[in-house]
């Protein structure tokens, strides 16, 4: 009982301090998460292989079968070697099991499955979230450094003007 109360208080404090990563994930944040996961999983190498895990998101055959069971689209095992199809599988998986696109849940489920253990996924979570935060900060910095586009004044159009010297 004390553990649940303590966890609830901690969540309230983190939300109050603005540290809740699960609140209203934007498309930009989601795409940054995918890029961070790709960086951590394979450094962007579509041919990366680690045991049964293959491709930019290190997808196993079991994961492909699981995504195929969702029924949105059918993927082959070779689709794991395609960056685009790997991202599509990741999104289908999360649309089903993480429809709010909660950042923490996405990271933990990808490494620990739908019924992940926080303890077992903590190391991977720390690694991915650090890369994610760095990438997001770099993107925000780049956006704020871009000069504002100012429309150049256009010369006024002169309509129905008679050529000079003619009457």
What does this structure look like?
The protein is mainly α. It has a domain at 32-140: Lysozyme, CATH 1.10.530.10. 56% of the residues lie in helices and 2% in strands. The chain contains six helices and two strands; from the N terminus they run ααββαααα. It has helices at 2-16, 27-42, 61-70, 83-97, 103-112, 118-145, and strands at 49-50, 53-54. Strands 1-2 form a two-stranded antiparallel ribbon. β1 and β2 (53-54) form a beta hairpin. α2 packs across α6, α3 (61-70) packs across α4 and α5 packs across α6 (118-145). The protein is globular and about 60 Å long. It starts with a helix and ends in a 22-residue tail after the last helix. The model has no long low-confidence stretch (mean pLDDT 85).
Tell me the layout of helices and strands.
Blueprint: H1 2-16, H2 27-42, E1 49-50, E2 53-54, H3 61-70, H4 83-97, H5 103-112, H6 118-145
Antiparallel strand pairs: 1-2
Fraction in beta strands: under 5%
* Derived structural class: mainly alpha
Total DSSP E strands: 2
Q: If you compute it from the alpha carbons, what radius of gyration comes out, rounded to the nearest whole angstrom?
A: 24 Å
Number of H- or I-type helical stretches: 6
Q: Secondary-structure element sequence? A: HHEEHHHH
For the record, the CATH architecture of the domain at 32-140 stands as: Orthogonal Bundle
Q: Kindly identify the CATH topology of the domain at 32-140.
A: Lysozyme
Overall spatial form? globular
> What are the low-pLDDT stretches, counting only 5+ consecutive residues below 50?
none
Write out the strand line-up for the largest beta sheet, numbering strands in chain order: 1-2
The level 1 CATH classification of the domain at 32-140 is Mainly Alpha
Mean pLDDT: 85
- Oligomeric form of this entry? single chain
**Gap from first CA to last CA:** 97 Å
């Amino acid at each position: 009982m004390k553990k649940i109360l303590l966890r609830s208080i901690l969540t309230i404090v983190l939300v109050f301090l603005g540290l809740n990563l699960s609140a209203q994930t934007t498309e930009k944040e989601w795409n940054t998460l995918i890029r961070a996961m790709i960086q951590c999983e394979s450094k962007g190498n579509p041919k990366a292989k680690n045991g049964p895990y293959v491709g930019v998101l290190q997808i196993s055959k079991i994961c492909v079968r699981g995504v195929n069971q969702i029924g949105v689209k059918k993927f082959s095992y070779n689709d794991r070697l395609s960056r685009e199809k790997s991202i599509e599988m990741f999104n289908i998986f999360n649309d089903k099991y993480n429809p709010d696109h909660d950042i923490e849940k996405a990271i933990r489920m990808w490494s620990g499955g739908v019924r992940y253990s926080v303890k077992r996924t903590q190391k991977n979570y720390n690694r991915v979230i650090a890369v994610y935060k760095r990438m997001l900060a770099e993107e925000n910095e780049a956006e704020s450094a871009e000069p504002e586009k100012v429309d150049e004044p256009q010369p006024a159009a002169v309509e129905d003007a008679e050529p000079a010297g003619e009457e």
